[in-house]
Amino acid sequence: MQHSASLGDSDSRRLSLRNVSLATSGRYRCEVSAEAPSFQTVKDSFHLQIYVLPSRGPVINGVLDYRRLGVRKGDELRLNCSCHQSAPPTSLSWFINDHKVHDKHVLEYPPREEGELMTSVLGLRIKMEERHMAEHALRVKCVASLDPVFWRSQEESFPIIQDFPLPDDGSSGVAVAPSTTGKCILSRPSSRDFQAPSQLPLPCILMKIRLSRNVLHEAVRRSERQ
């Protein structure tokens, strides 16, 4: 990368720069002086910003468990978003179900220097509440921007696991099965929206294991209260 700019076709009225680099960024001033006898001078300045755009959009890290096991009310969502090698560093923002996440739920890291370029990282730490459970899946999006020249995003979708009251007989009271659309969701065993395959796909098996643990924990709590 060049570290100095040439004036190119510049003249007394126009500034033209070639071979610009990050070092070219800065404040430039234009000054005009009148001839005698007044010699009045007028000047103005502006800031020139040179951008190096990221080669790709932001990346969300820490999604594997949420993809496989889903999220439920009370879970803490712990994710990081990074956008690599730009100048200046990109600005990152989190969105859940198209709503921007409040600053109190984000964890800001200082930009990481990589030569002349910077990598931005922003964490997300938020406890799942009832308001997050309104849809069939939790949509989490990270947006990276270098206003006004760059805007990219990545979105992840995690299945939502709804809790059902535990019946008095100690059974789970719910069924785990793939729906006709191929998604793995929970419902009452009598639901007509579910198939009854002899072998569940892996996501449904993992969900069933998690549900069984919940049933066991609830049974223990009930026995302790008796």
From TrEMBL:
The record's section on InterPro entries has:
Ig-like_dom (IPR007110), Ig-like_fold (IPR013783)
Q: Which domain of life is it from?
A: Eukaryota
Ig-like domain sequence ranges = 58-145
Q: What is this protein called?
A: Ig-like domain-containing protein
